[in-house]
Amino acid sequence: MSENEGLISAASALIGDPALFGRVHDDGTVYVWTAAGEKPVGSYPGKSPEEALQYFVRKFETLASEIALTAARIRSGAILPQDAEIAVAKLRESIATINAVGDLAALAVAVDQIPPLIDQQRQIYAAKKADEANARAAARNDAKIAKEAIVVEAESISDKDSWKVTGDRLKELLDQWKVLPRIDKASDEQLWKRFSIARNGFDRRRRAHFAKLVAEQSTIASAKEKIVLEAETLATSRDWVATARRFSTLMQEWKTSGRGQKRSDDALWERFRAAQEAFFAAKKADLERRENSMGANLAKKEEIAKQIEALLPITDFATAKKSFRDLLSQLEKIGQIPRDKRDALEIRVGAVEKEIRILDEEHRRKTDPAAKARATDVVRQLTEAIENYEKVAAKATANNDAKRAADALESAEARRSWLAEAQRSLDEFSA
Q: Among 49, 291, 369, 431, fewest CB within 10 Å belongs to which?
């Protein structure tokens, strides 16, 4: 742990006893003790002295955490040095203006430990920028080597007749070229020219090759006839999912089968489209029937949802919990409903489920022996504290120390209100 973190931790730990750093006056005003004396920080109307004091303690703790977090971010390099300096200035302003209860001097000391961290990070940042510049230079050199390798490979395969493999590889090489950073202009242009010559030469030979395939119209027509015959067979299928997927595949096969004679292509396409439309019309009709069924399911679920909502407000938790489970089981047994109705129905049921869950958690909390033991211990500690303060007051009175007696009685009185609250919390637990 760094010195800065240690200061923050120490400052935060002292809040274990807020009375070390502040107090609450009878009129509700909360004071913090500083090196310059006592300073009012505000009030918290409608709250007990302990709650008011804790409210301003939390403000202190929040600022302490912010200081620690800022130091950690600077140390990790998550914030730029110039931004870190702005953050430190804001922290100093916050310490000067905050209305909080805690060791404010410790926070100021902690902030003073941050600037050296900024100086360290500034040096690290400068070194990092230099490394990045070197890395960019190295990247440009690597890019030149990579582009030269791309060009050499493109030239070596541009005379191949494996049209798809070579075409795909040239495309991959082009994609690789695009993601590489630019190098010096002269080298870039010279290498690109060689690469373009290799690619264009291959493309010209490939176009000439496929131009010859135009004569093979009968082969294309035969392939499309096969596609159409299968589509006409599938038109009456009722296996909606698998058949729809097969129609999609047949469509892709049609697209990739090539272009035949226009008249033949048009006639085959009309037959294919007619088969496809017949199947999807039947599929749509079946979907509409299922949607009607979902409408009936929705009515049933709506009725059960009303019964679930009628469980509120809950007066008999055990009975309501059992009824909810039974109704929920009935709800889950009903089939599907329209998708656009699901969220609204789930929200209605969820609202009741949330209420039952809250009551269930409250029930477990009130019957938790460990929690009851903790509440009992708080009552015991406060009772002992009051007795100790009363003894101090009695002893001070006997010694004619009126101020110490008054302070002790005031402390005892403050803890009586805390004791009453603790006792009420204890009384909430089941026997």
A: 431
Q: What share of the chain is helix, strand, coil (3-state, %, to 5)?
A: 80, 5, 15
Going by C-alpha positions, the residue among 23, 24, 90, 33 that lies closest to residue 63 is 90
**More confident position, 256 or 5:** 256
pLDDT per residue over 311-336, tens digit each?
888 888 788 888 888 988 888 888 78
CB 382 within 8 A of CB 15: no
Mean pLDDT calculated for residue range 124-138: 76
Task: Name beta bridge partners: 219.
Answer: none
Where are the chain's structural domains?
A: 3-112, 146-213, 217-289, 297-366, 369-427
Closest to 234 measured CA to CA, from 271, 286, 260, 264: 271
Q: How far apart are CA 350 and CA 370, in angstroms?
A: 30
Least Cα distance to 199 among 162, 163, 170 occurs for 170
Instruction: Give the neighbor-by-neighbor strand order of the sheet with 37-43.
Output: 22-24, 29-34, 37-43
